[in-house]
Recover the amino acids of this structure.
């Protein structure tokens, strides 16, 4: 299985709620640089948090790649979601090539949990950072971090 984990691009500092924060111009540029790293990858699904900045990030990637399937929006990819629960959700998908679009602190914890088997040292995921993990199963400690790219 190949799993890519993308943190949303830079977002406005404030909005009515955290979920409503939108990408900045710089954030959109960051996402486009990260999306370019996914060109040619045989993704089966793009799955995103319902928060506006993650939806905007996923849409930019979707359009850049010319992806034909719609972006899937799920409630289990929000900033405070439990990384162990997310791993269970990924396993239930039964897919081999997946992109997740989410937020800190979840993305750092998720990368660490998948690679190291614990989230005590979260991966450093700045805005629009893209992690690529590979392994037979999406289980804690059983995936290998192949790349961690930062667009800036």
């Amino acid at each position: 299985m190949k799993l890519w984990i993308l943190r949303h691009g830079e977002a406005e500092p404030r909005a009515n709620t955290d979920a409503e924060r939108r990408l900045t111009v710089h954030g959109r540029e960051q996402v486009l640089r990260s999306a370019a790293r996914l060109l040619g990858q045989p993704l089966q699904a793009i799955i995103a948090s319902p928060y506006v900045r993650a939806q905007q990030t996923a849409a930019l990637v979707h359009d850049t790649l010319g992806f034909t399937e719609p972006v899937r929006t799920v409630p289990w990819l929000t900033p405070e979601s439990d990384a162990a629960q997310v791993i269970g959700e990924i396993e239930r998908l039964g897919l081999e090539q997946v992109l997740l679009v989410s937020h800190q602190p979840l993305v750092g914890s998720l990368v660490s949990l998948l690679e190291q088997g614990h989230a005590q040292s979260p991966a450093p995921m700045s805005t629009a950072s893209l992690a690529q993990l590979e392994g037979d199963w999406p289980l804690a400690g059983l995936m290998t971090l192949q790349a961690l790219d930062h667009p800036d």
In short: Strands lie at 2-7, 45-48, 72-73, 97-102, 130-134, 144-149. DSSP finds four helices and six strands in the chain. The chain has one domain: 2-70+83-149.
